[in-house]
Amino acid sequence: MSDVKKSLATSFGDVAYSEQGAGRPALFVHGVFHNSHLWDPLVERLKPMRRCIALDLMTHGDTRTASDQDVSFAAQAEMLSAFCEGLGLDRVDLVANDSGSGIAQIFAARHPARLASLTLTNGDVHDNWPPANFERTRQSAAAGQLVPALKRMLDDLEFARAAFASGYEHPERLTLERFRESLGPLLASEQRAHDLLRFFAAMNNRDTVAVEPLLRTLQAPTLIVWGTADIFFDVRWAYWLKDTIPGCRKVVELDGAKLFFPEERPDALADAIRAHWEA
Question: Residue 3: what pLDDT?
Answer without folding.
Answer: 53
